[in-house]
Amino acid sequence: MFKEIFENVRQGSPLIHNITNYVTVNDCANMLLACGGSPIMADDPGDAVEITAVCGGLNINIGTLNQRTVPTMFAAGKRSNELGHPVVLDPVGAGASTLRTETALRLLEEVSFSVIRGNISEIKTLALGSGTTKGVDADVADKVTEENLDGAVAFAKAFAKRVGAVIAVTGAIDIVTDGERAFCIRNGRPEMSSVTGTGCQLSALTAAFVTANRERPLEAAAAAVCAMGLCGEIAFRRMTELDGNASYRNYIIDAMYRLTPTALEEGARYEVR
Amino acid sequence: MFKEIFENVRQGSPLIHNITNYVTVNDCANMLLACGGSPIMADDPGDAVEITAVCGGLNINIGTLNQRTVPTMFAAGKRSNELGHPVVLDPVGAGASTLRTETALRLLEEVSFSVIRGNISEIKTLALGSGTTKGVDADVADKVTEENLDGAVAFAKAFAKRVGAVIAVTGAIDIVTDGERAFCIRNGRPEMSSVTGTGCQLSALTAAFVTANRERPLEAAAAAVCAMGLCGEIAFRRMTELDGNASYRNYIIDAMYRLTPTALEEGARYEVR
Amino acid sequence: MFKEIFENVRQGSPLIHNITNYVTVNDCANMLLACGGSPIMADDPGDAVEITAVCGGLNINIGTLNQRTVPTMFAAGKRSNELGHPVVLDPVGAGASTLRTETALRLLEEVSFSVIRGNISEIKTLALGSGTTKGVDADVADKVTEENLDGAVAFAKAFAKRVGAVIAVTGAIDIVTDGERAFCIRNGRPEMSSVTGTGCQLSALTAAFVTANRERPLEAAAAAVCAMGLCGEIAFRRMTELDGNASYRNYIIDAMYRLTPTALEEGARYEVR
After folding, report:
1. Residues of A at the B interface (Cβ-Cβ below 8 Å)?
2. Domains (ranges, CATH) in chain A?
3. Nearest-5° angle of CA B71, CA B74, CA B78?
């Protein structure tokens, strides 16, 4: 199934509008190109509504939100909803500041999302309406482990049902659910967290996968999460003892560029709960 | 001739002011350093007019234009004109939104450009006053091929004459013309389009080449286009089967860092029409 | 001593708030991760004051300052002062425009900095209250050499005493002083200046080192300067004849990722004057 989903990305070459942070935006663009999609960035209110209309999907990432870009997120999100485009939300740092938490919560109210992807602390903040995220990384106390996986799956399913979106909680074990079924995914490497923006890249990737597979957002999001983790594994095998997180960053994107639909199908490691 | 042009860049080390998008700005900076130039970025109206005065040339790229940076483009462009500095325009996404199209057209009216570099869809938008660019890539229907090359050359020449600037239309075959003569360039690799920002890098590079060779902007722009394409070829030969677009990005910049004026002279593939 | 200082960074994993330019921000984030720290970027006034409070230290870099981010620098700087967090200033381009010079001078008046890191032209601009920096690079006439080192050390010491901060003047020979003692550091490679943002990365790194070693900012800043230079040396030894500044950029960050506290202790080359 993931094979076909990835083939649709490669063949459909979805054009994705990204309103995203300036820290990792270049990597998001190259990751979109690597998977077969095409990126465009536009964050001014006077530009973004038209740009989103010529695209197939929208990726909203609040990583360096500001007074000018927050209204753009709402305007582009609503326009994408009108057009029936898939919209992905990456609530970077929700819980770490009032502006981030409230912007993410208001976006949830006013925009309909296909997929919301974040770490467990960010997703908990959205589900509970408040939080105390430490920066942009998940709180250690929140982390999803084999021991608390059942509870985390139940939590993610309940939140997915409530907001009517696919929820992707990523970490050591990833959970992707539409409220009914949950993919528990074990691809990836812990070293990926030493590269800035692997989460942002995954959100952009997810937008491409969901846009090219609009009739099955759950499977498309799960395929994107597996693909990213698998590329982290492939890239890690390439590391020499001189390589560090900068080369690893490049190798992960390179791996996506080289990844075949068949390799994704065979390398994806998940169970459905 | 290109040998001498490139030597002037290496020796003159032109300082280029870039008002450019935040997606590819880091690559533009490293590409400028790779060719022997020096970058500075400043996009606030209160900063850019003074910064442009300490530089030798200006590169305006509208890739992620916004309410704050659009006025800066006009102010810095006019100041550069007063000082006699070469100014390059990269009309990223002109045709994809009203703001982009109108900003580019107004810039053409109010600022005098040495070179305008874009893909064929963007340049057609500027020439016709409107357009329907699909995102930031050229429309397939517009593409310059061996079959329609004569017509494309005639079009570019006419537009160059009308606006009084060198026009660089880049794609599979590049056309660089001042209205009288046209360099038709066949350097480059199709894989370059899988790296975000190779066009932006070329515009920055062009600004450096034109600034270091102010008396011959046509030849300088053509040399920059050849150099970029040649680096794409050199970098491609270095690719292993594990490398993808992220490593290719690095290898292209690396190739420019290592490129000698003699290698440019020998590797440039063009005809003059 | 530097061994222990670096161990504190690796173990303490300081979270650093960066208000920095969009040119080199991704490299700053990966450099912070490489040294064992953690980055967060927030530059909106409505976001940054809260974000700075959840961090351990603050890095202010004026490289692409604008009307929106300048007030954020003051607000976050003052909040960090209230909380007793170390604050680093990188006055990029001070002397090249009135806005940059005046912003840096006002920041010096209103915010208490632990470390100010810049090239000699930028630091001279701050010390003299005006300057004529050519872009973002040091003026050739200003450069610190073996011949003028005594005078440069005396100048840096006097400025450090006056502003009550550690001053780090970086170049071919680096000077790091608190007004009493000065570390004269000879690590590094001239090729590092062909990579955009090695100075910005060093400022971010310095923030991490000082935050993890709050009781000794002078030694922590000196250790950061040695570590950066040492990584430049290690990365340079890895360069092949095909590699240029793009690969060098990656190798420097990789080297930091792999650097051990013992290797820093052994590789640091400095004298105290």
Report:
1. 15, 22, 25-26, 29-30, 33-34, 38-47, 50-51, 54-55, 68, 238, 249-258
2. 2-272 (3.40.1190.20)
3. 145
